[in-house]
Amino acid sequence: MSINTRSTNIELPIKLIFTEEGSTALLTQKVKFSRFKMGDMSEEYGLSLDKVVPASLQRMIMADYISKIEVFGVEPVSNRSEIIDLSELIIYSILYRKYTFVSLEQILKTEPVKKWNHANPFQIIDEKTQFKEGSIQNFLSTRGEELAEIQKELAEPVYDTIAGDTALLEDEKKNRILITQNFITFAHPLVWFVLLKFNKSSDYLPLLREVRRCLAEFIKKSNIAEYTALMLMELASNIENLNILREAKLLYKTERVEIQRVLQDPKLRLPVIEELRKKNNLLSFSWKLGGTSLTAIGTRGRFQVFLYDQDANYKETRESLDATKAANVAKYNLSEYYKQLHKNGNDLELGIFYLSFLSEACETMGIKFESVVSQTQYTGKTITTLSFGL
Fold first, then answer.
1. Is residue 143 pLDDT above 80, yes or no?
2. Cα–Cα distance between 111 and 326 in angstroms, integer?
3. pLDDT tens digits, one per residue of 152-180
4. What is the pLDDT of residue 253?
5. What is the CA radius of gyration of the chain?
């Protein structure tokens, strides 16, 4: 799911933790925060909601208002589409925000801009550039037609590449084009100022190609949103099944029930889910977008995804992860692998293999990826962490 593709609310029990800037902005609007316990047992102040508006959440992420988002105590199978949508929304937002800053960094490092700044020390092009129109947005609004032509010239070769990609289905092509449009929308305004300034010069085409190269790099990286969402669901399903099977043995100990049937039979599965809910043993998901704990390694291109298992599955999860995260799944693309995953009808074992696929995909996209399973010291809670560096 990319921006503007979902108009309906995402209905999940969600906790939002804010950055210092976000907290200040909301407190000035007299928003009241609550104190609550997070999946890692830490206590935070923030907002607890039963649904979020996708566009509003994305604007807050883009403004760097949110440091952590947590979905707590949910059953993954029943909430599959909502969790996938939320995860993709968060990661796309991180990518768009990262692209805003990278597009600026790249354009300011080009030779034409360097030469201009050297020759015009009192009219340097940087983030402090002054405009007689009052702001860069006002300046760009006065050059609307010319800007539209530049953006068209930038995007058309990218659209042609997408249209000619025989590996993509029509819906995938439409989504890729929408994502491209979003990246263009979120390019730093100074990028457009530079292209407008050099539009009629011999430096224009090299500048345009550099912006297009940066755009193509991030379009390629955008696959991480879908890959991570699917990985998260497979991992959650794997852990949930372990919990269900363990709880089913306790619940049906006096009945003649084949435990494996509980995973497929709703009449047997639902009572087990309710028992897990009563014991507060359902799963929680968390996305860490920034905050002081990530300052040392940079917050703009770094994010982490956590899966908190209230039950103590550490041994099974750790052994499964260690045994499979280096497995070779290069013979599958995403579509083939996912079909194979479900065709074999054994998600419990195959779901965790997707870690290897995700790791390989990240390497191809130039994204740093790390996965680890740990256990809290006092509660025995299992925490699976997926870390990404864009």
1. yes
2. 43
3. 999 999 999 999 999 889 999 999 999 99
4. 77
5. 24
